[in-house]
């Protein structure tokens, strides 16, 4: 069953943050991920107006998504944003059965 990595972020230092975003596509691909949305037009419908970048990545399974996020490669890349260059909230969501 597919799973979705959903992140919302606030970029504080675009130069440092780019060092992170330049590395991430290859890491995601290694774990079977496919970026469905990254950046682009958005409208906050409800909630705080803190985050201004949104990302949705699909993985074949929940486990592959979690493995990607917890990998050494991703952790090394994320160090560029975790030093204050950005603030991020991330969740992994397994696609569920839809009932009527």
Automatic annotation (TrEMBL):
Gene3D superfamilies: 3.30.70.100. This is DUF1330 domain-containing protein. Coiled coil: none annotated. Residues 2-92 form the DUF1330 domain. InterPro entries: Dimeric_a/b-barrel, DUF1330.
């Amino acid at each position: 069953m597919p799973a979705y990595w959903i992140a919302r972020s606030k970029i504080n230092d675009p130069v440092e943050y780019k060092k992170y975003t330049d590395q991430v596509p290859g890491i995601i691909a290694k774990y079977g991920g496919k970026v469905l949305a990254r950046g682009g037009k958005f409208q906050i419908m409800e909630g705080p107006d803190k985050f201004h970048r949104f990302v949705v990545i699909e993985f074949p399974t929940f486990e592959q998504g979690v493995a990607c996020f917890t990998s050494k490669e991703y952790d090394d890349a994320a160090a560029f944003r975790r030093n204050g260059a950005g603030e991020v909230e991330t969740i992994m969501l397994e696609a569920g059965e839809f009932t009527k």
